[in-house]
Amino acid sequence: MVLSAPVQTSTFGFLSMLDERLPGRLTGLYVVGSAALGDYSERVSNLDLVAVSDDGWDEADLAVAAASHGLLKAPRPPVVAYLSAGDLAGDPRSLDRPCYRGATRVPSDELVNPFTWQILSVGAIDLRGPDRPKLWEDPTALSPWAAARLASLWAPEVPHLGRVGAMWLRRRVSSVVLEVSRLAVAARSGRALSKTEATRVLEPQVPGRFRRILADAIGYRSGGRTSMYWGPLERKQNAVELLRELVGGSGAPPPL
């Protein structure tokens, strides 16, 4: 996969800054997420990176590295996980490693998870380090992880999204529909797909009344300016109904 010019500029700028401020520390840098999966949007995507050091990262290293995240120009703050080479050979579900969204520390499993490990094994973009690092692999791990994330993160959230005033913006509707669709496909198939690809895989599997909201979400992500709905309320209601299905509210789509 070839990085776009803006992504190349920001990622190599980040790499150079780490080399300058922490010489010899960075031994691997991998682009994962949408950029590695061929689904990066200059309008809505963030950059997901895995930074590797042979000996791991101490708090002083992390403070310096996090201060360089501003070089990673993207529509949304970058997500960067800091690992050791040995961590890559371990089960990510058992690891608690530093992970940042922009300058803010976030829970490790934001990026240290089976989804990222699958991308590392088949499609990550190596800016430094071996193109296929020594990795822990378990083809059965992604499905239960994705199902658990749907249950813990999104099932409690969906009732709130249905309240009046929530999810009026098309950008917000599209983002949630695509993310939940990707997790639903991962839970059923064990495959780490991009948001767009997963949503297209899901589309023929759901009842026909939901296909319009899936197409609308893909259209927005790809730069479309015209919605398939007359107004935001109709779009919101259709989206919330689909989300309830995907997280197991009133039934579920057929297995993929």
Brief description of this entry?
The chain is an alpha+beta fold and 256 residues long.
- Written as H for each helix and E for each strand, in order along the chain, the element string is HEHEHEHEEHEHHHHHH
Distance between the termini: 26 Å
The CATH C-level class name of the largest domain: Alpha Beta
Mean pLDDT: 90
Structural class, please? alpha+beta
Largest sheet: 6 strands, mixed
Residue stretches low in confidence (pLDDT < 50, at least 5 long) are none
Oligomerization state of this entry?
Answer: single chain
- Give the helix proportion (percent range): 40-55%
> Architecture of the largest domain in CATH?
2-Layer Sandwich
Radius of gyration: 19 Å
Number of helices: 11
Give the count of structural domains. Answer: 2
* Content of β-strand: 5-15%
CATH topology of the largest domain: Beta Polymerase, domain 2
Number of strands: 6
Question: Which sequence of strands runs across the widest sheet?
Answer: 5-4-3-2-1-6
Outline type? globular
Provide keyphrases for this structure.
single chain; 256 residues; alpha+beta; Beta Polymerase, domain 2; 2 domains; 6-stranded mixed β-sheet; 6 strands; 10% strand
Mind explaining what this structure looks like?
It is built from 11 helices and 6 strands. It is an alpha+beta fold and 256 residues long. The protein has 2 domains: 5-128, 2-Layer Sandwich (Beta Polymerase, domain 2); 142-246. The chain has a 6-stranded mixed beta sheet with strand order 5-4-3-2-1-6, sandwiched between helices. Strand 4 (99-101) and strand 5 form a beta hairpin. Helix 6 runs antiparallel to helix 8 (170-189) and helix 8 (170-189) crosses helix 10. The two termini are 26 Å apart. The model has no long low-confidence stretch (mean pLDDT 90).
